[in-house]
Each structure stands twice: as C-alpha cells, then as structure tokens.
Amino acid sequence: MLRRALLAASASEQVRRIITRVPLSRDVVARFVAGDTVDDALAVTRKLLDDGLLVSLDYLGEDTVDPQQAAAVTDEYVRLVGLLRAGGMSAGGAAEVSVKPTAVGLDLAEHAEKTACENIARICAAARDAGTTVTIDAEEHTRVEPTLRILGQLRPEFPDLGCVVQSYLRRSPEDCRRLASAGSRVRLCKGAYNAAPDVAFESRAEVDRCYARCLRVLMDGPGYPMIATHDPRLITIAGQRARAAGRQPSSFEYQMLYGIRPAEQARLARTGAQVRVYVPYGSDWYGYLVRRLAERPANLTFFLRSLVSRG
Ligand SMILES: Cc1cc2nc3c(=O)[nH]c(=O)nc-3n(C[C@H](O)[C@H](O)[C@H](O)COP(=O)(O)OP(=O)(O)OC[C@H]3O[C@@H](n4cnc5c(N)ncnc54)[C@H](O)[C@@H]3O)c2cc1C
Description:
This protein is an alpha/beta fold and 311 residues long. Helix content is 51%, strand content 13%. It is built from 13 helices and eight strands. α9 links the parallel β5 (185-189) and β6 (224-228). The mean pLDDT is 92. Bound molecules: flavin-adenine dinucleotide. Residues 137-138, 164, 166, 189-193, 228-231, 255-257, 260-261, 278, 292, 295-296, 299 line the site of flavin-adenine dinucleotide.
C-alpha cells in the first residue's frame, strides 16, 4: 500500500515541489546519490574501483519532454564517458554508463523513439571509443516494447549494449528467453515501478519466484547475466545457479545500488565475484529518491526523522 502510494506521489508535481525545496532532503539524497556534479561522480567511481568494485554511472533525469533537454543529457553522457576514459576508469568496462530512454527522448511528442535511439547510439559510440559499455535502464512497463525495439536496432552495431528485465512483469521469463543469446548483457532486477495486475505480479513472493525463473534462464543460457538485487536469498540462489551451470566468475556479475548494502558488495567482491555498483549523480534526483524510499519503509522513517529533528 505504502509503496503504491509513494510511487503514485512521485508523479505529483506538488509533492515534488515540497520535497525538493526542503533542504534537509539533501541528507537522505546523499545516502543514495554520488552528488550533483560530474566531479562528485568521478570521485565516487575512483574510490569504488580502488576498492575492487565495478561501476555503472547514471546521470539522473527522466521523462524529458524537451528535445533540447534530451540532447543535453546525451551530451552529458558523452562528456562523462570521455572523462572516464581520460581518468583511466573505462578500460575493460570497469566503469560503464546506464541510460534511461525517457531521459534521452522516448517521451518527446514527436519522433520520440527515433530520437532516443539516435541519442543512445551516440552514447554507445563514445563508450566503444572508451573501451566500455552502455546499459539501457528499464522504466514503466509501457516503455518495455519501444526500449526492446531500440535495443534490437542498435545491437547489430553495438553487440555489447545491455538491457534490463524486471521480474515484476509477467512477460519477463519470455523476454529472458529471447534475450539470452551469446554475448547478450542482461540485467535482471525486480522492478521499481507500479503496474496493473494484468501485466505485473502484485505479491513480493510472486515477483521473487519470477526472479528465480528468469535467473535460471539467463544463467543456463550463453549470455552475460547481471544479477541486480540486494535480496540475500536471491543472491544465494544466483551463486548456486552459476555453479550448477558451470559458469566462471568472469561470466556474470552482481549489481547493487550505491548506498545499499555496501558491506555485502565488499563481501561478494572478496569471494572473487564481479560486483558492479550503480552510481547515480546529478541534481534531478527526485524520482530516483522516491523509488528508493518506496522500496523500504525504514528509508521513509529515516527521511521523516531527519525532517522532524532538524526542522
Ligand atoms: C544495479 C541496479 C540497477 C537497477 N536498475 C533498474 C532498472 O533499470 N529498472 C527498474 O525498474 N529497477 C531497477 N533497479 C531497482 C530494482 O528493480 C529494485 O527496485 C531494487 O533493487 C530493490 O529490490 P531488491 O532486488 O534489492 O529486493 P528487495 O526485496 O526490495 O530488497 C531486499 C533487501 O535489500 C535491501 N534494500 C533493498 N532496497 C533498499 C533500499 N531502497 N534502501 C535500503 N535497503 C534496501 C534491504 O535489506 C532489503 O531487505 C535496479 C537495481 C539495481 C541493484
């Protein structure tokens, strides 16, 4: 209930104005976001790489309806990839980037899919020059088909372009079967959005069962699975499935969000597993923050307490 209410609130302009104007929101934001600037992002990336982790950087922003804004976000990604390269952080895909289709054009009134596709292609070309990769984030379920079409158009030129499957969607095991081809990078997560029961599972147990089903398809296939979860039970199942499939640690990776279960990230890396941390940065943090609050009531308590104690 609370999760649904929060995700619904995330769409309200009034709620957005209140939360983003409260200076104390910053304390909570700092837990999940590297900072406002690219320099903040690069400093966090350097530290994580030094600690033996991999990184995927996300320039915050989504639901862009202005073509110039979509172009500016694309420019920022191209600049970011260039800076990663200059800093020696992109080689071998150590630090890559994650891109939301609606941040680079998928929500425009005209030529939306074409613009998003062209913009993602620009980012992919820069990433290839820097020796790294791009992963297309998954957003609301209505964006799945256009996102998969964009992936299909770009993969012939950029075979290492990654995508995301969300296990809360009923269609996802089938998507995994279609996507689990040789070399295909697929990130599996539970999904951070709301959807109607005809397309999405409602209970956590069903979402988790679907996650395990998708995991099996990806681990048993010839692709490169990216296991994006903080859930201890699913992390254990992933390790078991990787062993059962005879996979080497280099043939898949775990992924977690910046600021969530950092001790577990370090522990997994010490076992020899590849662990990538998803690091968001930028000033447009509102939608991202609300999704993190919705995932865990304790985060909301932390947020409200910081408002009350300092307000
Ligand atoms: C690398 C990465 C990329 C992602 N990309 C996408 C994407 O493209 N599209 C999309 O829809 N979703 C994405 N997500 C979010 C994902 O869908 C889930 O909403 C999120 O990961 C929480 O689910 P969980 O698997 O960790 O399991 P949960 O059952 O939600 O959590 C398991 C445990 O993890 C910890 N935990 C989880 N969330 C939090 C939190 N917010 N704060 C503190 N502790 C927490 C808690 O200990 C909790 O008990 C991504 C997640 C990761 C890790």
